[in-house]
Design brief:
Radius of gyration: 21 Å
Number of strands: 12
CATH topology of the largest domain: Rossmann fold
Keywords: NAD, Nucleotide-binding, Oxidoreductase
CATH class of the largest domain: Alpha Beta
CATH superfamily of the largest domain: NAD(P)-binding Rossmann-like Domain
Structural class: alpha/beta
Shape: globular
Protein name: Glutamate dehydrogenase
Number of helices: 17
Pfam families: ELFV_dehydrog, ELFV_dehydrog_N
Strand content: 15-25%
CATH architecture of the largest domain: 3-Layer(aba) Sandwich
Distance between the termini: 25 Å
GO molecular function, one term: glutamate dehydrogenase (NADP+) activity
InterPro entries: Aminoacid_DH-like_N_sf, Glu/Leu/Phe/Val/Trp_DH, Glu/Leu/Phe/Val/Trp_DH_C, Glu/Leu/Phe/Val/Trp_DH_dimer, Glu/Leu/Phe/Val_DH_AS, Glu_DH, Glu_Leu_Phe_Val_DH, NAD(P)-bd_dom_sf
Length: 444
């Protein structure tokens, strides 16, 4: 990185001890070096210096009372990264690992992901180091209400529209939306992922997983001449993204043989029975290890990393950042895996991505392949603005079109810069150009 190395140095100096943020910025800047060479006006206008610095970072205290009457204190975050093409848009994550660096990495990725959808949405992200695991509904409600009593003043349907992420599902969105509505005395589309009877969109729950498969189906067909039909697929995670990626992959004719959670993974050589997983995860909220009680032919293994040693044609990491490292990538390649699509945000380490690239594996970066969730959130915003709702089939068809278009625009951008099948480069460049041109037009 000749032209942009000083930008990277500044990011590291200004944001010490934030390795995930550094990793995300470095990956994007490496792709954009050729854009900087070809378009010196972006360098002159300081676009690269501006795009790596959030427009606003908000950190706040979240006090709440647990079921024993004890006061607990968590920390809340909202990073409003870039609003050049639309209001900030990005999820809220509740997980003990959350800190400002993780929220910045996610918010930065979100700028390009949202740009790729073709919808008018800027990039932002939020969350808290609160752990919803093992908490009662009452504790989660009180936490969400306290969180919103601070967040409400920074968001709005035309300012910043949060959604769910890890640890934040329909229940949490409901509690937060209820509090926002009460404080602001208005019913607006300020949060997405809402319930169907109060402003939500059909197909939102399925969107990230379905979108991932629509993207991969188009990419495999175009680049590899293959499809999900008859393919063996390994998927990590067992949350919302993994469940609906499994569902759509199975509908498209694939055999999904593994799923995981933070404790370990389950391998079912006969193919994962999705109704069992939905019962365990969505209804009972238990661990994936329960699966073998229902299907004794399946095998449960403690620890997550071994999932990538299972022989497969297609791997879809859908759990969390940096879950698939260089050794895992080598194991996948050795077992004949020819396509990897990211359902989570940045699940593959830089070493893993290098292994895939060197071995001709079709690799789809999350900001392109998992954009289906935020795309459907954008469709939910449109429906809220119209006070109207589309059918499941209408939303699903729009989602499929968006995912196919993301693949095509990423591939076209990569081709323009001489690396046709490099979807990392293509997604970064295509996502960046739209935002950069808007920033140029709006001045400093």
């Amino acid at each position: 990185m000749k032209l942009l190395s000083n930008v990277m140095e500044q990011v590291i100096k200004r944001n010490p001890n934030e390795p995930e943020f550094h990793q995300a910025v470095k990956e994007v800047l490496e792709s954009l070096e050729i854009v900087a060479e070809k378009n010196p006006e972006y360098v002159k206008a300081g676009i690269f210096d501006r795009i790596v610095e959030p427009e606003r970072q908000i950190i706040f205290r979240v006090p709440w009372v647990d079921d024993n009457g004890k006061v607990q204190v968590n920390r809340g975050f909202r990073v409003q990264f870039n609003s050049a093409i639309g209001p900030y848009k990005g999820g809220i994550r509740f997980h003990p690992s959350v800190n400002v660096g993780i929220i910045k990495f996610l918010g930065f990725e979100q700028i390009f992901k949202n740009s790729l959808t073709g919808l008018p949405m800027g990039g932002g992200k939020g969350g808290s180091d609160f752990d919803p695991k093992g908490k009662s509904d009452g504790e989660i409600m009180r936490f969400c209400q306290s969180f919103m009593t601070e967040l409400y003043r920074h968001i709005g349907p035309d300012t910043d529209v949060p959604a769910g992420d890890i640890g934040v599902g329909g229940r949490e969105i409901g509690y937060m939306f209820g509090m926002y509505r009460k404080i602001r005395n208005e019913f607006t589309g300020v949060l997405t992922g809402k319930g169907l009877t109060w402003g939500g969109s059909l197909a939102r729950t399925e969107a990230t997983g379905y979108g991932l498969c629509y993207f991969m189906e188009e990419a495999m067909k175009t680049i590899k001449g293959k499809s999900f039909e008859g393919a063996t697929v390994v998927i990590s995670g067992s949350g919302n993204v993994a469940i609906y990626a499994t569902e759509k992959a199975q509908q498209l004719g694939a055999k999904v043989v593994a799923l995981s959670d933070s404790n370990g993974y389950v391998y079912d050589p006969d193919g994962i029975k999705l109704d069992t997983v939905k019962q365990i995860k969505e209804v009972e909220r238990k661990r994936i290890s329960e699966y073998v009680k229902y299907h004794p032919n399946a095998k449960y293994t403690e620890g997550c990393s071994g999932i990538w040693t299972i022989k497969c044609d297609v791997a879809l990491p859908c759990a969390t950042q940096n879950e698939l490292d260089g050794n895992a990538a080598k194991a996948l390649v050795a077992n004949g895996c020819y396509a990897v699509g990211e359902g989570a945000n940045m699940p593959c380490t830089p070493e893993a991505i290098d292994v895939f690239m060197e071995n001709g594996v079709l690799y789809a970066p999350g900001k392109a392949s998992n954009a289906g969730g935020v795309a459907t959130s954008g469709l939910e915003m449109s429906q809220n603005s119209m006070r109207y709702s589309w059918s499941f089939e209408e939303v699903d068809a729009k989602l499929k079109d968006i995912m196919v278009n993301i693949f095509r625009s990423a591939r076209a951008a990569a081709k323009e810069y001489g690396q046709e099948d490099n979807l990392v480069l293509g997604a970064n460049v295509a996502g960046f150009l739209k935002v950069a041109n808007a920033m140029m037009a709006q001045g400093v």
